[in-house]
């Protein structure tokens, strides 16, 4: 295939999630349904549409055997799959109240993206050896506490704004700045840490990250343009963002992330020969990191990305701090 693909959608040309989310400018008129069909379905996902990874990107046998590394991946992708399923259901409300055709088409494509993400995360667990017949029930059981403590409060908060209040722009802010703005850096970390261990897992994370760049940048453009046209909406938007930051401050996500990172740490030590001198970020070998360091780096990426997006929209970054100190 020789057809050209947009730089930001090309498998080999798209930037990493952090750089893309901080530097690219994309809008809903550009990223419409036709764009998704040609640049995403026929571009990003070419030869990767079924599993999220190329047929030549294999799942290594050691990840199919019981052990802490496999347990870490099962937890990570199980939780991410459930999160993406909930995101898909939430986005149906965005499509229903989209104020114009560009927004309707874009959020229709994002809904499909999130449904695809949920599917490839779930199906990767089958590739690891989980039984397909009971997969959904197994994920529900495995992630019950995570759903109750972490996902449910975020889901309820989003529904209150987009479904009950019918506030489309407020919903865009919640999804882009609060939800994906917090979860996207964790996705970046996932791609970096699994790439040297499993080609298939790394490619799945790479493909979802390319999508997340588009979601974050288009949403930021929608909000920026709305604030230019309706500056009176600014105080309400800031109020929503403050409430979202407060919510995330109260959610005990760290306990779940650190648990699986500790499992990853054990498994990484067992398979150190497969990782070698691979650097998870410049100058730092993956083997030399700890669970807390990886978690803290993801939080730092969150701060950097959120501050960049807020500046792009002309909003004060101070709103990202509920206490005036640390950011999200």
Q: Can you walk me through this structure?
A:
The structure is a single chain. The chain has 328 residues and is mostly helical. The protein has one domain: Ribonucleotide Reductase, subunit A (Orthogonal Bundle), CATH 1.10.620. It is 68% helix and 2% strand. It is built from twelve helices and two strands; from the N terminus they run αααααααααααββα. It has helices at residues 17-23, 33-44, 68-97, 101-127, 135-142, 144-164, 168-194, 199-229, 234-250, 253-270, 272-275, 291-312; strands at residues 279-281, 284-285. A two-stranded antiparallel ribbon has the order 1-2. A hairpin with a 2-residue loop joins strand 1 (279-281) and strand 2. Helix 3 (68-97) runs antiparallel to helix 10 (253-270) and helix 7 (168-194) runs antiparallel to helix 8. The relative contact order is 0.14.
Termini separation? 43 Å
Number of domains: 1
**Quaternary class:** single chain
Report mean pLDDT, rounded to a whole number: 93
Q: From the alpha carbons, calculate the radius of gyration and give it in angstroms.
A: 19 Å
- The number of distinct helices, counting runs of at least 4 residues, comes to 12
* Strand-pairing-aware structural class: mainly alpha
CATH superfamily: Ribonucleotide Reductase, subunit A
What overall geometry do the principal axes of the alpha carbons give?
globular
Helix content: 55-70%
At the first level of CATH, what is the class?
Answer: Mainly Alpha
Uncertain ranges:
322-328
Listing every helix as H and every strand as E from the N terminus to the C terminus, the arrangement reads HHHHHHHHHHHEEH
């Amino acid at each position: 295939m020789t057809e050209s693909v947009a730089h930001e959608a090309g498998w080999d040309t798209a930037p990493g999630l952090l750089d893309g989310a901080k530097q690219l400018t994309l809008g809903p008129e550009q990223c419409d349904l036709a764009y998704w069909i040609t640049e995403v379905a026929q571009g990003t996902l070419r030869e990767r549409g079924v599993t999220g990874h190329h047929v030549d990107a294999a799942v290594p046998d050691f990840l199919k055997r019981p052990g802490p590394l496999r347990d870490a991946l099962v937890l990570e992708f199980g939780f991410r799959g459930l999160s993406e399923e909930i995101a898909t259901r939430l986005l149906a409300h965005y499509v229903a109240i989209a104020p114009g055709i560009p927004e309707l088409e874009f959020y229709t494509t994002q809904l499909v993206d999130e449904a695809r993400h949920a599917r490839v995360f779930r199906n990767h667990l089958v590739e690891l050896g989980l039984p397909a017949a009971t997969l959904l029930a197994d994920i529900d059981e495995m992630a019950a506490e995570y759903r109750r403590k972490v996902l449910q409060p975020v889901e309820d908060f989003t529904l209150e704004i987009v479904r009950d209040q019918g506030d489309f722009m407020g919903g865009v802010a919640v999804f882009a700045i609060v939800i994906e703005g917090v979860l996207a850096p964790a996705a970046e970390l996932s791609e970096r840490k699994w790439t040297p261990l499993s080609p298939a897992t790394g490619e799945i994370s790479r493909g979802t990250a390319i999508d997340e760049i588009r979601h974050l940048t288009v949403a930021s453009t929608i909000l920026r343009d709305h604030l230019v046209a309706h500056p009176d909406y600014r105080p309400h938007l800031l109020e929503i963002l403050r409430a979202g930051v407060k919510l995330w401050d109260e959610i005990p996500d760290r306990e779940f992330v650190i648990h699986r990172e500790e499992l990853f740490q054990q498994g990484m030590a067992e398979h150190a020969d497969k990782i070698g001198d691979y650097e998870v970020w410049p100058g730092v070998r993956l083997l030399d990191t700890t669970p807390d360091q990886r978690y803290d780096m993801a939080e730092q990426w969150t701060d950097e990305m959120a501050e960049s997006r807020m500046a792009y929209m002309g909003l004060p970054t101070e709103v990202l701090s509920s206490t005036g100190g640390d950011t999200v």
